[in-house]
Amino acid sequence: MKGNRLELVTIGDELLLGFTIDTNAAHIARALGEIGFEIVRRSTVGDSAGDIAAAVGDALSRTGAVITTGGLGPTSDDLTKASIAELFGRKMVMDENLLREVEARWNRLWPGRHFPAPNRQQAEIPEGAEIIPNAHGSAPGIRLEDDAGRWVAMLPGVPREMRGMLGEQIIPRLKSRAGGTVILSKTLRTAGIGESAIAEVLGANPLDGVPSAAMLALAFLPSALGVDLRVTVRGLLREDSEEILAAAALKLRERIEAYVYGEGDADLAESVLALCRSRRLTVAVAESCTGGMLGQRLTAVPGSSDVFRGGIIAYDNQVKEQLLGVDHATIAENGAVSVETAAAMASGARQRLGASVGIGITGIAGPGGGTAEKPVGTVCVAIDGDGITSARSLRLIGDREEIRQRSAQSALDMLRRALITV
What CATH number matches the domain at 181-263, 2.160.10.10, 3.40.50.1170, 3.90.550.10, 3.30.70.2860? Predict the structure, then answer.
C-alpha cells in the first residue's frame, strides 16, 4: 500500500446504465477522508469478469490497495469474488462455517422455505481470503492480500450493508495505519447568489490571511438549491485541521454573510423554521407552479408543526380566486404569473390559514407556456406579514424540475432574508 492512498472500484451494470446512482463511492470517500485516507481514483465497471479483473488489477498496480462494492450476491451476474480470485491466482473454495451461517440466516428470515441452491455461492470465497462479517445482510465481505502486501476489500453494493460494514469493519482496520492525519472539509451553504457572483465578491485570493492557506483548497459547488463553498485541508492532525477550517469559514463569511444560511448539510427550510420559531411566527403557503414542493420542504423538517400552518395548491386561476381571495381583476390586468398575483396569493394564504406570514409562488416552469415577455423560468415570489412584505419576479434556469426546486428555495431565502433584517 502506497501511503494513505486507495482506489475504489464500484461494480454493476445498473451503475453504468444510469439506473442506480452510485452513492457508495461518495460515502466511502468521505468516510475514509476523515481518517486520513484518500481515494485517488474511482472507476465503475459492469458485471463482466474481464472488466472487473482489469479494473482491479490496474488499481492495484498504482496504489496496492483497493475497495470494491457490488457483485457479491447469489446470482449469475455476481462475479466479483471469482474475478478477483483469478487475478490473485486463487481458487474458489466453499467455507462450510460460512455456509451454515448463510443457511441459518435464510431460515430465520424465511422459516420453512427451501434454501435456494444459488445462495450457496455466497459461502464460496477465494482460497486464503479473510471473511469480513456482514451484520446487515447475507453477503459477507472478503479481504484478499498477496505476498507483496497488495490487498482488495470487497464489500456488498447494497448501500445499507456497505455503510454498516465500512464503519464496523474497514474503518477500524485502517485507522491504525492512518498516522493521525486526516482529510477534512467544511461547507458553507448559500442561496440567492450565483457562482460567478460569489467568485467576484470573494476576489482572486479569498483565503488570504488564513493560517496555512496554501494547504487549503476551495471549491464552488452550484446546484438548484444554491452554491456550496467547500474548503478542504489534507495531511494535518484533526485538531489542527478543524482550527484552520474554522478560520477559513469565518474569512469567507465576512464577505458573503448575507447569503450564507448554514454549514455542512444544513437545510434552508430548517433554518427558516428556526428563525420563525424564535420570533413566534407561523407560516402558510400558496403555491402554483411548485405544486406543493414548498410545503413538502417545510413539513420534511421534524417538529415543523409548531410553525407551519398549512398550504393551498392553487394551480387553476379559479382556485386562486375562490380559495385564496385573489381578485379576478388582479389576474386579468397583470396575469397569473405576476408579482401582484403572487402578493395576493401570499396575503390570501396568511389570512385564510391564520398564519403570521404567507408565502406565494406562481410561475412558468415549462417546458411550454412561456412568452417573449414572460419566458419559461419566470417565477414570481411574495411574502406577506407584518413588517416583512415583499415581492419579486425572478428568471430561473433549468428544466421543469430544477425551476420548481429553485422557486421553492428562492421563496425560503426571501423569507430568511426578511427575518434577519427585522
Answer: 3.30.70.2860
